[in-house]
Amino acid sequence: MIIRASVVRMDGMDPELEAFVPLFPRTDPADPVAGRAKFAGLATSVAAPDLADMEVEDRTVPADPDVPVRVYRPRLAQGAVVWLHGGGWVMGDVDTEHPWAARIAQRSGAVVVSVGYRLAPENPFPAALDDVWAVLHWVVEHAADLGVDPARIAVGGHSAGGGLAAAVALRARDEGGPRICFQLLNQPGLDDRQESWSARNFTATPWMDRSKVAAAWRHYLGGAPATPYAAPARATDLSGLPPAYIASAEFCPNRDEDIAYAVRLLEAGVSVELHQWPGTFHGSQAILSAEVSQRQIAELGAALRRGLAAR
Predict the structure, then answer these.
(1) CB 219 within 8 Å of CB 88
(2) DSSP symbol at 21
């Protein structure tokens, strides 16, 4: 089947964000290993917030293989989130996620357990999901050590990490796994089929476009057919899942699948807060000098605080 995508104008992009578009490094989606250094350089160029009011510790979760995590512990934290970085399942680690995991902890007041899950294409699905599954169990089992209520454990993440968070919520429901009280999904990658309007038409959007999304799914799936635990949008039953906050970006290929997933959750009786951010693109919350990006980060932290409090 040949899909002909039309040229889509990006009128209405936030001018503060648009000014940064020419500065993004070019990456080859066919060679994610080479792209990791560029991604790391871009991510770590962002300064972390003041960490004086929290403890930060690198730990190792026993598994096969062991999983590195970085734990952020604000004072008087009541709940925790298993936090999953973006990077199309092929890039990123606890170091590249450090500025954002720290901000989530600071804004939410929750313990953040940032997961260094295995990356594709060297480790295709289900390696990353198995790592997240092991960390989820570890967080629940060590809730007392972390100083949090085991009934207040959430999952969340950006982009590919948001897709992993949605997938682990499905797995926990299906396998009677640890109870997850909330899922925080920021521009999640949920559907490998790329049949939505935004997936078909956003062929030249900043940072992430159709070709990059397609390449990421190929690397992640490794030639195997997609299951709902790889691509949560394929799940036919979304009932019984935790309440969710879902954020989408206007000029993001994932936009329509994120909105559709939110609607399907609502139809299945799951409480959902959906925020579609106008004028933004995939990952643009990382441009912290932009006012809209500051609001996005603040809202993610506030949503997590609300979700853990409601439990």
Answers:
(1) yes
(2) G
Give me the count of residues in the chain: 311
Q: Which CATH number fits domain 15-21+51-310: 3.40.50.620, 2.140.10.30, 3.40.50.1820, 3.40.30.10?
A: 3.40.50.1820
Rounded CA-CA distance 296/286 in Å is 9
Q: Whole-angstrom distance between the N-terminal and C-terminal Cα of the chain?
A: 45
Neighbours of 141 (CB within 10 A): 11
DSSP conformational letter for 110: S
DSSP string, 224-236: SPP-TTTSGGG-S
Show Cβ contacts of residue 207 under 8 Å, excluding neighbours closer than 6 positions. 24, 281, 282, 283, 284
| Amino acid type, 299 | E
26-84 confidence digits (pLDDT tens): 777 778 888 888 888 877 778 888 898 899 999 999 999 999 999 999 999 999 999 99
Domain ranges of the chain: 15-21+51-310
Residue 157 in contact with residue 83, Cβ under 8 Å?
A: yes
What does pTM read for this prediction?
0.94
